[in-house]
Amino acid sequence: MDPLSHLLDGPRARGAFTLRVVMRPPWGIRLLDRSALTLAVVTSGRVWVDVGDGGTAAAAGDVVLVRGPEPYSFSDRSGRSPTVTVHPGQRCVAADGQEVRVSMRHGVGTWGNDPEGPDTMVVGAYEDDSEVGRLALSALPRLAVLPGERVDPALVSLLTREITSDRVAQSGLNDRLLDCLLVMAVRAWIEDAPDHAPSWLNARRDPVVARALDLVHERPADPWTLAGLARACAVSRSTLADRFQRAVGTPPMTYLRTWRLTVAGDLLTTRPDLGLEAVAARVGYGSGFAFSAAFKQHTGLSPSRYRAPAAAP
C-alpha cells in the first residue's frame, strides 16, 4: 500500500451530516458546529468561504475542504455579516435570534432562504475526527478550494440526488458517497499542491527513500533497525540515513517512531474494539506498557485519555 493510500484509508462516515443548500443574496452562514472536516461542492452560483483570514471565492463546480473544529463561514460575498449561525447539533439561529432550521427547510435534504436561489451547494460534514482519521486531518490545510472538475461530476450528481431523496438505506449510501468524494478531493489537492503536502508524500522521487517509506508504512509492526531497513533497500546504513534525511527531513528511525505512533492514534480512535496490547502489537511495540510510555511522550496523553473523546457517546 503506497503512503497516499494510507492517508486516504481513514474516511469512514457514520451518519454524516449531508445537505443541499440553496440561497439567494444577501446571505451569510456562520458555522460553529465544530465538525472535524466539511466538504462542500458549489453546484451553481458563487460562494465566498472565510476561515478567518479574509477568505476566497469558490465558483460552480469548485470543491471546498474546511478542516475544523474552528468556526468558518459561507456567504454570497466577502464581508457579509451572518444571516444565520449554525451551532453544534445543527441548531440554526437567524440574526434576529429566531430558530430557522425547520422554517428554512424545503423538502427532503434541502435547506436555505429561497428554494429557487441561485447559489447552491452540496455539503457534507464529518462531525467526529475519528471518522476521518487524524492522519488525514493532520495532512490537510485549514482551507482548500479545488477548481471545478477535479472530482467526478457524476459522483456529485449522485450524492445530490440521494441527499434529496427519501429511500431505504439513504443515510448509509450518503456516507459512502461522501467518503468517495472526500478521497477524490484529497487526492486532487495533493496532486495540485505537492509543496504543501506532507514531506513523506513528496519524498518518493528518490527510489531508495520511496522503498524505505513503503516498507515502514506497510509493515510498522516489523522490528526495524537502521541496518535492517538499509539491507531491505539494498544500500548501506549511511546511504539510507543521508538520503532519507535529505528527502524527508528526519532520520529514518525517528520517522519510524513517529509513523508508528501516528498510526496508533488512528487505531485508538477508529478501532474501539482493539485493546491496548493489540494496538501496541500492530505498531511494533512489544508490550502495552512500552507503547503507553512512548505514546504519552509523543502526544502528552495516555492512550486511554487519547481514545476517550472518540468513545464518548
TrEMBL record:
Pfam families: Cupin_6 (PF12852), HTH_18 (PF12833). SUPFAM superfamilies: Homeodomain-like. This is AraC-type DNA-binding protein. InterPro entries: AraC_lig, AraC_XylS_family_regulators, Homeodomain-like_sf, HTH_AraC. Keywords: DNA-binding, Transcription, Transcription regulation. SMART domains: HTH_ARAC. One of its GO terms (molecular function) is sequence-specific DNA binding. PANTHER family: HTH-TYPE TRANSCRIPTIONAL ACTIVATOR RHAS, HTH-TYPE TRANSCRIPTIONAL ACTIVATOR RHAS-RELATED. PROSITE patterns: HTH_ARAC_FAMILY_2 (PS01124). Residues 210-309 form the HTH araC/xylS-type domain.
